[in-house]
Write a structure and sequence with these properties.
Blueprint lengths: L7 H13 L1 H12 L11 H14 L3 E5 L17 E6 L9 E7 L18 E2 L2 E3 L3 H20 L7 E7 L10 H6 L9 E4 L7 E6 L1 E10 L3 E2 L9 H21 L16 E9 L10 E2 L2 E10 L5 H17 L6 E9 L2 E2 L5 H14 L4 E5 L5 H6 L6 E3 L14 E3 H19 L3
Parallel strand pairs: 3-6, 3-7, 7-17, 8-16
Antiparallel strand pairs: 1-2, 2-6, 4-5, 5-18, 8-15, 9-13, 9-14, 10-12, 11-13
Bound molecules: zinc ion.
């Protein structure tokens, strides 16, 4: 699908309006940060959805608040209600045009330690907006919203429908957010393109991510008195050879498998494995008793490449774990799957990719760099549940600051991304 041409004078007006809105964009990002939508557990979604919804309504969007049903929400979330907000702006020129959806997640990860200032200040200073979520991704939500505003101020009449949503739970898998909106048809197949302003930076467009195979290995031993360990079988000791194999054999072998997907940073362009946690014995039980532990477990995060494929990875893990068990009589492991995510890749030359390429050229005078994400985000639900393959991530921020203390977003990033998103929307939907 080709882009609609945007008149040079309109293009110039859009970019001028983005620049003129600099202080407002930064202030709105700060306002969003000051509502601490910390997830887990998922706090203050209603307040944050209301803030975005009110602004969208004031800009002429038709606004829907969506409360996902309990079975789409994580256990225990009755105390932390989930809420999504969707704004729709139909074309003033009548029906029949394209549909573009800009989606941002409203949740942020907990502040964590290491901050020297209030992590939810949303302060604007030294040319940046500061606080948890500034980059990931309240800056992106602010840029998406202001893309619509600057189009209006520039006098652009869009030839299609522009949707902007703010959703829950991306940081914990997105089931009550984008996945639910896709399942319930609120992000639907008739959407031509989706842009998610995650913080890859104003000069990069993200066209996909690697896959995830997350599993637990349980070592099964035999309980006995700790003073006579030879009568039992120590499950913790049985994990040791598996840990060594992961470190000495899996890691280097996987590092030799490289993907054609342009994953950044460079170190993530290969298959990887990480042991997330290890549990065993009576740790945390309070009182220790002399026992040989009969159960110990590892949780392992295997990130795989599109070239590997989920089924092959699943078989390889099962085979390697079984082989390790077979090296000693009595050693027993069980593999339990925790989470699988298929890799996604935006089709080359897609409408969203080309629109962002055009937007970045206009707003920054630069060629956009195509990258892929080391981790997954809501792209997977758009592609696999909603059935919209034409999805990219493009938004302001500093990726390396996501989830870290001192998170901020340069105001220049906000302005550039707002301009580029506005141009991209104009080129997708057409203007008159
Ligand atoms: Zn994010």
């Amino acid at each position: 699908m080709p882009l609609h041409p945007v008149a040079a004078r309109l293009e110039a007006r859009i970019l001028r309006q983005a620049e003129a809105a600099r202080a407002e964009i930064a202030a709105f990002c700060g306002e969003l940060i000051r509502i601490p939508t910390v997830n887990p557990p998922g706090e203050n979604y209603r307040e944050c959805a209301a803030l975005l919804g009110d602004r969208l309504a004031a800009a002429g969007f038709e606004v829907t608040f969506d409360d996902p049903p309990a079975d789409a929400c994580p256990p225990g979330s009755a105390a932390y209600p989930r809420r999504n907000v969707i704004g729709r702006l139909e074309s003033p020129l009548g029906g029949g045009g394209r549909r573009l959806h800009l989606n941002g997640h409203l949740d942020v990860v907990p502040a964590g330690s290491g901050w020297t200032t209030d992590p939810f200040s949303g302060a604007v200073r030294d040319g940046a907006v500061w606080g948890r979520g500034a980059s990931d991704m309240k800056g992106g939500v602010a840029a998406a919203f202001f893309a619509a505003i600057v189009l209006q101020r520039a006098g652009a009449r869009l030839g299609g429908t522009l949707e902007i949503s703010g959703t829950a739970d991306e940081e914990t898998g997105g089931h009550a957010g984008v996945a639910w909106l896709a399942e319930s048809g609120q992000i639907a197949r008739d959407t031509d393109a989706v842009i998610i302003p995650e913080p890859f930076g104003s000069r990069r467009v993200c066209v996909g991510h690697r896959g995830v195979y997350w599993f637990r290995v349980v070592a099964e031993g035999e309980v006995a008195h700790g003073s006579m360990p030879f009568l039992g079988r120590n499950a913790i000791a049985d994990l040791a050879p598996l840990l060594e194999e992961i470190r000495n054999e899996w890691v280097p072998e996987l590092a030799a498998r490289r993907t054609a997907l342009p994953v950044v940073p460079e170190g993530a362009r290969v298959a990887t494995v990480n042991v997330n946690s290890i549990r065993g014995g009576q740790a945390g039980a309070g009182t220790e008793s002399p026992q040989v532990p009969d159960r110990a477990e590892l949780v392992v995060d295997r990130r795989f490449l599109p070239e590997e494929g989920l089924e092959a990875v699943r078989e390889e893990v099962a085979h390697r774990v079984r082989a390790c068990a077979d090296r000693e009589p009595g050693r027993r492991y069980r593999v339990e799957e925790l989470l699988t995510v298929e890799p996604v890749r935006t089709p080359a030359g897609s409408l969203a990719t080309e629109a962002v390429r055009y937007g970045v050229r206009g707003a920054l005078g630069a060629e956009v760099e195509e990258v892929a994400s080391p981790g997954t985000y809501d792209h997977k639900h758009v592609a696999r549940v909603a059935g919209v393959p034409d999805c990219v991530a493009y938004g302001p921020g500093i990726l390396e600051l996501a989830h870290r203390p001192g998170e901020h977003c340069p105001v220049d990033e906000l302005v550039h991304s707002t301009g580029a998103l506005a141009l991209a929307a104009a080129a997708v939907l057409g203007t008159r």
